[in-house]
Design a protein that fits this description.
This protein is an all-alpha fold and 109 residues long. It has helices at 2-22, 27-48, 53-62, 70-83, 90-108. Helix 2 (27-48) runs antiparallel to helix 5 (90-108). The longest helix is centred in the middle third of the chain and has 22 residues, at 27-48. Residues 1-22 form the signal peptide.
Amino acid sequence: MRSVMIALMSCGLASVATMAEARELKTNDRYMCSWGAGTAAKAQELKLAGVSLYAARQKLQTYKFTKPWMRMMAMGITEQTYDSPSRIKPEAIRQGFYEDCVRYKLARR
């Protein structure tokens, strides 16, 4: 009897954990993660090309952003990218940023 209860409880916990991981992100969250990943990749590309942080900031000022929060977010992502000693390729940065962002958004739910 006790082993049956333990088996049922473990199956129940496993199904709850699976449901928590399978939750979908909102479209806005996916867009934000994708946009941030692209921004980080672009910043890494500029950094590896030898463009100074000042010049990268100036370049960001010329971009037209569709949402008010994007400019400051892009500045923060660019500064963090330049502060990092990483020399990883921009595509790897894009992938890692996107995966971490999605993981963060799911964990917040």
